[in-house]
Amino acid sequence: MKPAKIKAENKRKQIILSFYKALKSFGATLPILIGVILLIGLFKIYVSSKLISSIFTGELFRDTLIGSMIGSISTGNPITSYIIGGELLKEGVSLFAVTAFIAAWVTVGLIQLPAEASILGKRFALMRNALSFLFSILVALATVLTLKVIP
Amino acid sequence: MILKKEKNTKRSSKNLYYSFFFLILVIILYGVLFFLKPDKIINSLYASWNIFVSIIPVLISVIFLMGISNYLLKPKKVSKYLGKTSGFKGWFLSALFGILSHGPAYVWYPLLKDLKEYGMRTGLVVVFLYNRAIKLPLLPIMIFYFGIYFVIVLCIYMIVASIFQGKIIEIIEDKHVRWRVKNV
């Protein structure tokens, strides 16, 4: 066999092996992904935006914390968080709380936590989610205070 | 080397057991709730199915990206662009990839795990995941609800927060590794 042909054959084998590895690695995470998707399905049906807005109290700091907490346990497309956030603003919930809610919606994932812990490591997942929760409050404070300064 | 390989195999089989255990728990939860409110559970199953169908393109693209990265990216290359010595370039690239990535975060975990094993910095994994909060195609909707100034300020703070978070997690991890070396 010619060297060029051997090289091409090796390349083909390497490509097949790379995709086989990718499929195997992804397949190993499939049970947990299905579990998370099923949990999100439950969440979508059981938790409505009306239920979310009824939890806010009107107290600024407590509402920001509540916004962050609800954002952390909520999940789904970010558009949903914008729509709920917009509705919450209309109902008089503070921008601090709504911003914390939007920030935590994507950055903290309690429902996805089992998947994150299983794939990326328990310590990493716990630390990342705890810090994201804290940062969602800080980002909300910084954003709203900056907007108050901007004329 | 062999010991490390054995350890990895043990860890991955433990993770697989944990994954199946978690799935079984969720199925049991569905089973219990079905007896209480069967119509809600059927709707939840429909909702889950719709989510699954909607993420199929992302799942395929992630598997494709994993295959390509397995083929093209070697540990040396990963550590050059995303490793300990990657510097500003690494932070910038992972923030950019985080912003440009699509679909839910959990579909990206396997790819990130592979890249981490190739030498990607932990802080950069954090930056990638945090910046997924900024979705360019969704920004017009966000502007519609909250105004352009709000969106610009929020995005800037999100990027800054992601870097802070990445740095903090790296410091904690470093301390943990040093503590383990000292105590083992």
Radius of gyration based on Cα positions of chain A: 22 Å
Secondary-structure content class of chain B: mainly alpha
- The dominant shape of chain A is elongated
Number of DSSP-assigned strands of chain A: 0
Number of distinct beta strands of chain B: 0
H-E string of chain B: HHHHHHHH
What are the secondary-structure elements of chain A, in order, as H or E? Answer: HHHHHHH
Q: What is the rounded Rg of chain B? A: 20 Å
**What is the rounded distance between the termini of chain A?**
75 Å
Number of helices of chain B: 8
Helix content of chain A: over 70%
What do the pLDDT scores of chain A average to? 86
What is the SS-derived class of chain A?
Answer: mainly alpha
Low-confidence stretches of chain B: none
Query: What's the shape of chain B?
Result: globular
Residue runs with pLDDT of under 50 for 5 or more positions of chain A: none
Structure description:
The complex is a heterodimer of chains A (151) and B (184). Chain A is mainly alpha-helical and 151 residues long. Helix content of chain A is 83%, strand content 0%. Chain A has seven helices and no strands. Chain A has helices at residues 3-46, 49-53, 60-73, 78-90, 95-107, 113-120, 122-149. Chain A is elongated and about 80 Å long. The termini of chain A are far apart. The mean pLDDT of chain A is 86. Chain B contains eight helices and no strands. The longest helix of chain B is centred in the C-terminal third of the chain and has 36 residues, at 148-183. Chain B has 184 residues and is mainly alpha-helical. Chain B has a domain at 75-182. Chain B has helices at residues 2-36, 38-72, 75-82, 87-100, 109-117, 122-131, 139-146, 148-183. The two termini of chain B are 19 Å apart. Chains A and B meet through helix 1, helix 4, helix 5, helix 6 and helix 7 of A and helix 1, helix 2, helix 5, helix 6 and helix 7 of B.
